[in-house]
Records
---
Amino acid sequence: MLLNDAAYWQQLFQNDTILSVTQWLVPMLTGNALTGKLRCLNNMYFSSPSVQNAVGKLHSSEWCPTVPKPCPFLKFARHQRGTHPDLGPWRSAPPQQATPSTKLGMDALPLQSVQKANRQPFRLNVMVVGESGLGKTTFMNTLFNTDLVSEIVPEEPTKTVKISPITYELIEGKTTLQLTIIDTPGFGDRLDRSEDINPLVRYIENQYQAYWDAEKISSIRKPTFDTRVHVCLYFISPSGHSLKAHDVLALQELSSRVNVIPIIAKADTMTQREKKLFKQTILQDLSLHAIPIYPTAYSEHHETLEHLEQHIPFTVIGSEVGLQKDEKPIRGRQYDWGIVEVENENHCDFIHLREILFITCLAELVEITHTRHYHDYRASHLRKDGRPPSILECDEEYDRRIEDARKSISERLQRKDEEIRQNFVQLARHQELALRKKEEKVCMSHRFSFQHKELMEDIEREKASLASEEEAFLQTLESRQSVKAGKR
Ligand code: GDP
Ligand code: MG
């Protein structure tokens, strides 16, 4: 069935002449249509009559006899999951075309970029890696046509790889280039070379981390000084053989973190044929070990770079000596038999490499460093705590997790409800018991006070009868005494 065929969708909508809808609906359907996006599509866009019309056609047997009626998009989305970059749930409808009635002068907009570029210096951080003596320092001086790196004396073999970044400011006309050269003397000097790559990897990652840290602090976010490695020039010894094991290891480690451009050093030591064969061998090795190199593995403008890509890996010659040829100053190496010229494309690929670095791809190198390598670094760190690699992959997982979370919350709430109810019942029982006891007590005290009252009344009554008896007795006594006194 044609459900996952972009051309089918295209034709489906074009036949219906709903071109405006086709413009955005077809990419959406053939791109990563997530469950969430489909919901959004259903909710938002399907309210548009033209889309409803298209969807109606889609469901009708005339247009799409085998599409299941309930929701073909959902099925399509599930089928296409993970095959295209995720466009995100924030995707909105494309802008509508409008032609201004009067000239706005928009064609001058690119000038703003030029002015901005003139105001702000360009930055390029270049790491040079390769065994000592391959001519890295000489090459960097040749490349920038100035004595940037002063040491030319052979370096003492060091115990560890030293990383020494030096920043230069090169000014040409109105343009300023802040260039940082990160030399790595000591790389490959030891017998056991497997460890040599670690300091380089650490350095690269430290720069990503520093940039990330700076980004988190809003006050220093704007002038964040970019020390990330934008390009790594990897110098390969002109041996004519396959890549050495430690070169493969280093290239693998570096190319997974930065843009790597492989370079064959000291091209003047090889014949034309040897250079050609060596290039083929290296390219085979790179593809065998799945080592992505710049620009082949990255650039989106392959057609504009084809004339440069055919020279990869670039052969170079370094020379800091100015020579004369036909009374013109040139850079080259003087031998007994003649001169090899740095900028002669029959002698080496120096001019092509320079074009890639400064004319065609400087901005792209910086951009890829930010959008690919730096984000890969951040993503790998963020994923450490178990986050899924992309929204796309977590789509189903996410729904399930939300469902699980919802379930567990409702269970927890139910348990809590039950607990509260039990507590309440318990409390009520306690209260009831206490009240009952109180009532009994009150009753008791009532009864007691009633008895007390009765007793008191009895006492009072007895008191009164006693008093009357006493009075009667006294009267009797008095009358007897008076009778006695009369007799006398
Ligand atoms: P590094 O250790 O890689 O920085 O190498 P250097 O730049 O210090 O160069 C080491 C030696 O190689 C010096 O004597 C240079 O003159 C020489 N050298 C540099 N580039 C070339 C080159 O392209 N061809 C040849 N034949 N020798 C070179
Ligand atoms: Mg050096």
---
Amino acid sequence: MRMLHGKKVVLGVTGGIAAYKAVELAGRLKKQGAEVHVILTEGAKNFVTELTFREITGQPVTSTMWGEVANFQVEHIALARLADFVIVAPATANFIAKAAHGMADDMLTTTLLATRAPVYFAPAMNTAMYENPITQENIERLIQQGWRMIEPETGMLACGTIGAGRLPEPEDIVQALIETEGVQETLAGKRFLVTAGGTLEAVDPVRFLGNRSSGKMGYAIAEEAARRGAFVTLVFGATVALPAPDSPLVTTVRVESAQDMREAVLKASEGADVIIKAAAVADYRVKEIAADKIKKNDEVLTLELVKNPDILKELGEKKRAGQILVGFAAETQNLLDYASDKLRKKNLDLLVANDVSRKDAGFASDYNEVKLLYADGRIEDISLQPKSKIARILLDRIEDLCAAAPVPF
Ligand code: CTP
């Protein structure tokens, strides 16, 4: 098990001679399974290049706020939102001073100011600069803010002096990060059933009715559950075009229609401790699938549709004591009314309600903003953030529900 599997890390590199060690650090973080996004300051570019980090991390490297940033939604704060944690290594005295005073004059300072993720600094500089009360005061300010320091080592420095200020070896920095940010197998041995994506209902041999579900939310949930050690059966609809989750704990089952999904889900549900139905199941199917391709002979073509089985409702009816059932609701209006109705009617423990009328979240987006409705009437707002983070919050809540379940989880 790689200890930073699936973690999204922002690595900030500032302009000190130890910047060369950040190259190895990026490689080691990646080897531990992290997705590494590097931000270079202008100063850092005197020591290391964007190209080096791009090759090592396989991700775009950012060093300016003003250029085109290909993959990010809201450029200057996208990395701040995406990050599970931020590590600045090496952190120069100048950079620490800027960060300690809330400056935001480049991509890295801006990201630090905008992030809510844990932040780590690995200071590296000449001993006198490090020990200078001004630097120490700045470091103290950062610690007060809740940011953490990875202490520099004592040894021979690039300037020829011997003392504190040397950047720890990348291996040791990674180890320190794993200790606080590493994956914890809180769901080891548990069995999860997760559904994702949309079903397709055949009309004739070449056509189908479908929906816009990308499967991203369900996949993020399945990946997060596996990261926490759960065995996951992921039943996904044919609308999904995502690579299979990179974990031996996930078994995937591809289905096409709602009826196929029902069969796969009912089979896997028997042994499941937790069932999360993120799939967008077609509510109706064509009554009779045409044996041959329908020709365009008529001005108006009428398809007769019949209702599909409501899989979630069926699961709610046969729910075992201690089994946790989580549904999704996609609504374009009266979100809370419809959602709480679904929670009750389908006998759910938790319902994740999406407003799919929004353009910046939900269907096909990498981001989502949801409300969590609990069986006891509580409602929790989860602000707009990457689906990977929503998945993490959801699983934290599910772990709480499991702990409170009548049958020991
Ligand atoms: N669902 C299901 N089987 C269906 C339809 C939906 O299991 N035939 C599940 C979905 O996976 C989701 C939840 O029910 O977890 C809510 O689906 P949604 O489409 O929002 O609502 P419906 O229950 O279908 O109701 P309506 O379409 O009237 O809003």
---
Amino acid sequence: MSTIEANPEVDDVPVPRKNDHEVTTARNAQVGNLAVRRLLPLRTRRSVGAWCFIDHYGPADTDGRTGMNVPPHPHIGLQTVTWLLHGNVLHRDSLGSEQLIRPGQLNLMTSGRGIAHAEESVIPPSAADRNPVLHGVQLWVALPDASRQVEPAFEHHAVLPQTPLPATATGRATSVGRFAVTVFLGELAESRSPATAFSPIVGAELTARQQQHAAGTLPLRPDFEHVIFVANGRAEADGVPLEPGQLLYLPTGLEAAPVAAQSGTTVFLLGGVPLGEQLLMWWNFVARTPEEIAAATARWRDGEFGAVGGYQGEPLLAPALDVARLLRPRPIS
Ligand code: MN
């Protein structure tokens, strides 16, 4: 996916809630025809671990005319993580990759020094694949400075480790179900994703699938910071009630967080070791300096990222570059 806007920051001011935790509210944004809830970056927090961008979209009807239609656009300095709850999205990139993704699968694109891609809702010819409801998240992972110039790559993982989260022992234990946990990036407890990661990180989906309330204790690495958000339903994490569009931040130093949810709820846990690097994000580029942004913009204008085959339509044009805004001091996250 792509940010259409040059500056993707969410302007909401964090509101302290409980035990130094903070809950922020998504900003509504548009990616083409698709309405998204943009949960990260925040003006005051540009990354959580290496996660530097969180868009949550849908559930939205797609009928072949609406839905996701992001024309070819470039990326540098990041990995894109595509994860669906419903529907399907077709990915094409300048390496020649063409991959339809379905719920429970991971599309992971490592831009390294540069890649271009397009993502579209499609109406698959197979009735079994036909699903007009699109619901998912688009996440970016910043590449640490030492890995920013790696070769571009694309991975599709149809099978990912799943583990049940031990149910929290409570007086209601007989009526409380377990979360099913899928680790799509990094590791959580004993489960490790096969996807390529460049920093200590976790990305996991928790679902309360059973026809009952689910509760459990998330094991957390104390050297990680984390965020938790829900994609549908209602949950409570570390005592904080959450609904879609809210982002709970958990600082380093925690070893566990209790989480509970209504049946049918999907919860996301993202975290990692604080990056400790000052990111400069503009349009679809994650860089460190305005000069890098300007150079990448010129490379895109000059067609140096390569063509995305198979897409019917024109590539995206970069917005006008405002160097003065790029040079504005930013907090280190
Ligand atoms: Mn993209």
